[in-house]
């Protein structure tokens, strides 16, 4: 990524150009919130705290200071989700220069290919984008619910609340990232132990559903709220949002306790991964029960399949994923189903009762015989959820 910086042109920026800070005041919503001089001053102060200083560099100057061409810098900025900028916009700081050097240094030092470095940058950008939206909305909702503020006032109040939260949030982010990375490394050599003491390696008992020889054996499950579409028509936006948040929270608790991972949430549906077939089955049963017993939630359908998957960009792909997704529609409200291959893996484990169902034609898979799974002997997974 290090190349000729000679294309940088334009006069240098001398001193902070705060009047060029883009507050997007042409947007009527943002203009109403931050249109006053006091609010704009608070925005600039918070902006400086977050970015390390006031914005004082145009794109060409930031690329030049990082010893990159604007074309190479633009690749990194696009991976990080930055907007398109004109040559005159004062947008960057010294921290942006440092970030450019870090990403390009991974390539120049021979540690990563350019494609890999940009992919890592994109992963950080996409996940933190969702994270900060979540955090802002959580803070706003808390002020509205517990301090009696209007939504607009709560959003203005954020400007004075956030500076005191930056350090703890930054620490929590770094801590959680290190913990998650440590857990991911541990999973690389994970071996699942059965109740009888025998071990189940990642390559055992994992059917290749689509005959594509995918690399990893994992369990994939989906939990889907029943009647979500009709509920969304009857509820107002805030009530519906609270319902979805409660559903996601309950699912995240159960999946975490069961040693699984939430892969993604899509409105009324949660997709999760398990490292062992038994763990995935326990999570599935606990999800169905805990949602069924929650008076504020409709029931859920849950389907789970143990097979081979292809992990890419934080998501999972392959026929195993597709089959699990299709099976959800064949599940009774409050129930759990698996496919026949998964049922064979679970057979003999007293924690699970397996009941074959009628054969159904499943799009993309032909005739499939779902197997209903219910709780057998042993402790309930959700007993550990407070």
TrEMBL record:
PROSITE patterns named in the record: GUANYLATE_CYCLASE_2
SUPFAM superfamilies membership: Nucleotide cyclase
Residue span(s) of domain Guanylate cyclase: 219-328
Organism per entry: Kocuria tytonis
Biological process (GO), any one: intracellular signal transduction
Pfam family, one: Guanylate_cyc
Region (Disordered) residue spans: 1-20
Gene Ontology MF terms: adenylate cyclase activity
The protein's name: Adenylate/guanylate cyclase domain-containing protein
